[in-house]
Write a structure and sequence with these properties.
About 5% of the residues lie in helices and about 40% in strands. The chain has about 100 residues and is mainly beta. The longest helix has 6 residues.
């Protein structure tokens, strides 16, 4: 799923409605919730700051922001190194850290 979304980065939004994945075309918005002083964007790579036992995610696992659900929560896909998703979870923004791949 993530690979399909990344191919159209900025043009696709994933939405889970009634148990179905829906894709819709849209611009890449800045998410409105607070995020450690940085704006969150869809497709940002994040790490969990604490264990999420119900989703079988432990502190430090890496995921990708798929959608803003409200001002405080985002939908995050956690996947292995091969891109296979093992969890899609609603996570409070305060429990995530944005990962950076380049110097500030």
């Amino acid at each position: 799923m993530l690979a399909a979304l990344q191919q159209g980065r900025g043009t696709a939004v994933a939405s889970l409605a009634a148990g179905r994945l829906q894709l819709s075309k849209t611009a890449e918005p800045v998410l409105s919730g607070r995020y450690h002083g940085n704006a969150m964007q869809m497709f940002d790579v994040v790490a969990s700051l604490q264990d999420l036992p119900q989703q079988q995610v432990v502190k430090g696992q890496v995921g990708t922001v798929l959608e803003e659900l409200d001002n405080d929560h985002v939908l995050v896909e956690f996947a292995d190194v091969n891109g296979v998703a093992y969890a899609i979870a609603t996570v409070p923004m305060g429990q995530l850290m944005k990962l950076k791949h380049a110097p500030a």
